[in-house]
Specification:
Layout lengths: L11 H4 L2 H13 L1 H12 L8 E6 L2 E6 L2 E2 L1 H5 L12 E6 L5 E5 H17 L7 E5 L5 H12 L2 E4 L6 H10 L4 E5 L2 E3 L2 E3 L1 H10 L6 E5 L13 E3 H7 L10 E2 L5 E5 L7 E5 L2 H15 L6 E4 L6 H13 L3 E5 L10 H9 L3 E4 L1 H8 L4 H4 L8 E5 L5 H11 L6 E4 L35 E4 L12 E5 L9 E2 L3 H9 L6 E9 L5 E6 L3 E4 L2 E4 H9 L4 E11 L3 E10 L7 H14 L8 E4 L13 H8 L5 H7 L5 H18 L1
Parallel strand pairs: 4-17, 6-7, 6-8, 8-11, 11-12, 16-17, 16-18, 18-19, 19-20, 29-30
Antiparallel strand pairs: 1-2, 3-13, 4-5, 9-10, 14-15, 15-23, 21-22, 22-24, 24-25, 26-27, 28-29
The structure holds 5'-O-[(S)-butoxy(hydroxy)phosphoryl]adenosine.
Length: about 650
């Protein structure tokens, strides 16, 4: 983990005044309230200034209390009085190559018309709306229209199943669903309306379903419930809907994310603090210039898209590329071809996408002129140093700093990253470098003491920040317990981290039962619950196995109930069952039928044993000291036993 060869470092890192950055960061922490108040005042338009900067009633933070604003106003209306009026907000491209260009003026008009539609359907500050759309401009339009009215929305990734969609509509108590007839992905059509129909059978509280026509699929429209987007917009009476003057603490959206127990919980983000945070971090990390074209190649179904395709960039009047499909379809150079065609200056993607591109070798990007690129970003998982170097040389041509951005759905925005705007520190492939201003991060060991240099521990955040989650929807207790109980008074992120001899932060992946499969976050217990809901399954244990392409792949150990046979056929059926329960992203890649699972004396599954066996025992050394309540001998025996069962099953 030492610094790489000088020649591999971006030239910019030697030019920028690094000390300025550390000074700025240190000063910000001396008085975070003053620091964030200044940031909020300078960057966000408030209808009314706050009475109190921060109400910190651990672990509940209320930012800019008494302040009033509207996110839709900040992302759209305020650009109309400026040269940004006719600036492009989104260059949209469909997977098939169809394109649309929306200026800020266009966005204003679309958002208002759709807000008017929602208003006529009875959507108010007190309602929730579920959005299940493909990556088309109507997705940000719908989000901004909800924000305009103050209705908290929840976006469900279009790869989730009907059951997952229904769970989210019910848990959020949504009265409206916004969807499409279908969406394109890798040349296929995802039948979003058909999936929605199935979900709606179990979600009777949804009164209205608004359907956007994208693919012209034949779909069923239920009388009195289902309405076409185009008809509603054509018939709405208002061209302008006044943005609601909302409390700074008003919830902006709920986003479901997997944790260490059962079903995903809704992470709640607020208005004033969240917007201040995503706006500031977009500037610090991506250093956008007025004429830049920026492309965050994530899906809006995840938090990256919320913060860095929609709210951060739009609040700054930036021009973004918005792309519907996958990056290697129909040709494997699609991503690079688009970078060249749009003259993209800032590209933000994931290690998983990069590993996927690397499979095709160096030739596809070399076919394109990528000189427009100035800054490259990475998010979602630790980036392997060899992937970092490939990105740096083959995509960035050795000129562009890579901002490896560490954060989570819960944190709202980036917490740890280099900052080309404020002063770029020398980069090290695989390290996210240092916390951003206003963020006080530390690594603690199991005893809750600061970890020593190169000692692996847990990353924590010691002071509240404006982007942090407000709570878990309808579950304050779980909010306390998950994030604030391991080390009292500090935010526990659930990630391992070490700091090297120069203080750099190296984020090492999850310390809990959360998996990252192709960058998608899934809970092992969530997948186990899905497996156990099949009539043939008595018990199961799921673990992540290191995978070159996906980061982690899902391995399941399954005990079948008496009277059922562990066959290939059953294995196929179980895979299909999990797809239906959660979505294709959660499909186990390996299923091993076993007769028993390793358990501690208190009956808990020995998680580390399961993981070690799934990974071919590489880290059995680690296991021996870590399992709850079990002796070294017991753990060793458990590993051997499970190994033996897997071998005899093959
Ligand atoms: C988890 C959060 C952040 C938005 C998209 C994912 C992992 C994220 C990095 C990074 C190492 C990273 C962590 C974190 N993670 N970025 N740059 N380096 N690990 O949000 O689905 O809530 O997942 O992703 O393990 O806890 P998410």
């Amino acid at each position: 983990m030492s610094a790489p060869d000088e020649n591999t470092l971006p030239t910019t890192s030697r030019i920028f005044p690094v000390n300025r950055y550390f000074d700025f960061q240190r000063r910000s922490l001396e008085n975070i309230e003053e620091f964030w108040a200044k940031t909020a005042k300078e960057n966000i338009t408030w209808f009314k200034t706050w009475d109190k900067i921060l109400d910190w009633n651990i672990p509940f933070a209320k930012w800019f209390v008494g302040g009033k604003l509207n996110v839709s106003y900040n992302c759209v209306d305020r650009h109309l009085d400026s040269p940004n009026r006719n600036k492009v907000a989104y260059y949209w491209e469909g997977e098939k190559g169809d394109t649309r260009t929306l200026s800020y003026q266009d966005l204003f008009s679309e958002v208002n018309k759709f807000a008017s539609v929602l208003k006529e359907l009875g959507v108010t500050q007190k309602k929730r709306v579920t959005i299940y759309l493909p990556m088309i401009p109507e997705l940000p339009v719908a989000m901004l229209a909800c924000a305009r009215l103050g209705a908290a929305f929840t976006v469900v990734f279009s790869g989730f199943s009907s059951q997952a969609l229904s769970d989210r509509m019910n848990d959020s108590e949504s009265s409206v669903l916004i969807t499409a007839d279908g969406g394109y992905r890798r040349g296929k059509i995802i039948p979003l309306k058909t999936i929605s129909d199935e979900a709606l059978e179990d979600s009777p509280k949804v009164d209205h379903v608004i359907v956007y026509k994208r693919t012209n699929e034949n779909v069923q429209m239920k009388q009195g419930r289902d309405l076409w987007w185009s008809d509603l917009v054509a018939n709405t009476k208002n061209e302008f809907v006044k943005p609601e003057e909302l409390e700074s603490t008003h919830p902006l959206y709920l986003l479901y994310s997997s944790g260490t127990t059962g079903k995903p919980k809704a992470i709640v983000h607020g208005t004033g603090g969240y917007l201040t945070y995503v706006n500031a971090t977009t500037q610090w990390v991506f250093d956008p210039k007025p004429s830049d074209v920026y492309w965050c190649a994530a899906d809006i179904g995840w938090v990256t898209g919320h913060s860095y395709i929609v709210f951060g960039p739009l609040s700054l009047g930036m021009t973004s590329v918005l792309y519907e499909g996958v990056p290697d379809y129909p040709q494997n150079d699609r991503l690079w071809e688009m970078v060249e065609r749009y003259g993209v200056n800032i590209l933000y993607t994931s290690p998983t996408a990069l590993r996927g591109m690397m499979r095709y070798g160096d030739e596809p990007p070399s076919r394109h002129d990528l000189h427009s690129l100035r800054i490259l970003g990475s998010v979602g998982e630790p980036i392997n140093p060899h992937v970092w170097l490939w990105y740096f040389h083959n995509i960035g041509g050795g000129r562009c700093p890579i901002v490896d951005t560490w954060w989570q759905t819960e944190t709202g925005g980036i917490l740890i990253s280099a900052s080309p705007r404020l002063g770029l520190v020398p980069l090290k492939p695989g390290s996210a470098t240092f916390p951003l201003p206003g963020i006080e991060a530390e690594v603690l060991n199991d005893d809750g003491k600061p970890a020593k240099t190169n000692e692996k521990g847990y990353i924590v955040i010691k002071q509240p920040w404006p982007g942090m989650l407000q709570t878990l929807y309808h579950d304050e207790e779980r909010y306390r317990q998950v994030y604030w109980s391991k080390f009292p008074g500090v935010y526990y992120a659930g990630d391992y981290c070490v700091r090297d001899d120069e203080g750099y932060f190296w984020l090492l992946g999850r310390a809990d039962e959360v998996l990252k499969v192709s960058g998608h976050r899934l809970g092992t217990i969530e997948i186990e619950d899905a497996l156990v809901s099949h009539p043939a399954v008595a018990e199961s244990a799921v673990a992540g196995k290191a995978d070159e392409l996906k980061g982690e792949r899902i391995v399941a150990f399954v005990i079948v109930k008496a009277g059922h046979k562990p066959t290939e056929e059953l294995s196929r059926e179980l895979r299909e069952h999990v797809r239906k329960a959660i979505g294709p992203l959660a499909t186990p890649e390996e299923i091993h039928f076993v007769k028993s699972l390793p358990k501690t004396r208190s009956g808990k599954i020995m998680r580390r044993v399961v993981k070690a066996v799934a990974n071919g025992m590489q880290n059995v050394g680690d296991v021996t000291t870590l399992e709850d309540q079990a002796s070294v001998e017991e753990v060793k025996r458990a590993v051997l036993e499970l190994e033996e069962q897997v071998k005899s099953g093959d």
